[in-house]
Amino acid sequence: MRRIEKFLVVASPVGVFALWEILAYLGWIDVRILPPPSAVAITMVVMFGEEGLLDHTAATLLRFFVGMAVGVVPGVLIGLTMGIFRWFRAFTNPLVALFYPIPRIALFPLVLILVGINETSNVIMIALGPFFTMLISAMYSVLNIDRIYRDVAENFETGPRHLYTLVTLPAAMPTLMGGLRISVGLGLLGTVAVEFLVGESGLGHVIWNSWQVLSLQRSMAGLVVSAIVGFAVYLSMDLLERYLVPWQKKTAPV
Amino acid sequence: MPPESDDPAVTSGGRSDPAVGIRICGLNKSFDGPEGELVALAGIDLGVREGEFLCIVGPSGCGKTTLLRILAGLEPQFGGSVDFTVDTDGKPLQSMVFQEQGVFPWLTVLENAAYGLTVRHVPKDRCRAQARDYLRKLGLSAFEAAYPSQLSGGMRQRVNLARAFVNDPAVLLMDEPLGALDEQTKMLVQTDLLRLWEGSNKTVLFITHSLDEAIVLGDRVAVMSNRPGRIKTILEIDLPRPRDALELRNNERFLHLRRQVWDSLREEVVSLESDENRAPSPSGAPLS
Question: Which value does ipTM take for this structure?
Fold first, then answer.
């Protein structure tokens, strides 16, 4: 990356925060509604020290990763199978069409009744978004594999195991990575949403609970920590992509 | 070569002629198109001699690729018969060299070259050794760990050739493998291909739209007619081997053969052009 671009990557977020701080200092924005970054930062440090913000962060991360795993792994496996086998696609596609468009958060009461108010129902709720996203992107990633690769595989009389590991899976991988990036966003959204509703721990709980007692600085501190978590997760996607799709020229913006 | 195999139309299919490696009789193929049935091939009769390099030229859309795909086993539905009588000696029967995009972008050069052996469960060491052997012959040794996207078009097509040659089939089916390359690169890869093939006793069917390429490479050149495709004529290319793709183009015999092939092909191209200009377009309005 060129030097100027490196500078711009850092300059844009720093600029926004600086502007925010200055406007708050000048009194152009109401600090009771939008506390300046410095105040939020101080609150954050205090909360890490005295109110177990670190434990809340850990709880959120744990829920997020478990939910992602529970959603992504079966989603990819079922989606790939749907892409490979016509009959399986014919059988499962109507079910996907039926359940995918339901607003997932509306299923929460049902899940709570079926599973109970516990961590399992939280994980199920977090997993639903990544599950459907990975299922659909895995199916289309297989369906969109260039015909010439199937022809090559067929011409060389590739057996099922090699067809899967040497052709189908790598050919599907770039599309799967795209799906995973979207799933990560949905997973974080689901995690915080679940914590809003039933959590007794987690960043979502901190944000919602602080807002209910009108402690906006604490609510904001929780927001900032969850933003940092999201940023870190998103950046780690670049590393994962470099590892899983090494043949593609890197196009990551950061 | 026995005289009877000079006849392109091998019709008496009883006794097997040792010189014929692939016997194609009355081959028909049609597709369901938007405007009804589209006849791609109408009665192809062709005897491919064992160990020969046969080039097929024809106007665009004449069904050259369809013919090759049938031979490659990629089009299971067709009329007529295709018999491979070539002696495989335990080797795979045929491998296809696809157009440029046929190289797997997610495999390294070495993995691509070894693909055929890998999927036949040949031990990894032997896969690699044989793949490296051909990569060395094609000047790709330094790039064995590279991905195809890091290579030039000419190098990618060398990887494509390597993949087919490493698989060591009795018959190589090549579908315009050098079509996308620029002239200079094309000549270099042609030279490499000739070097690999001469002395390999493989039977090659090579599709191209370039007359020069067909004559430089082939023992015979088959000219196909407009769609529906038939074999129109077959010309013997009696240029001595080993051939040099770069030198040959100024050879007088080469120019004479080129004129002969072109005379045969020209009628087809001209009639195709005039068909396209006169026939009403699909919507019914006349073109230009």
Answer: 0.83
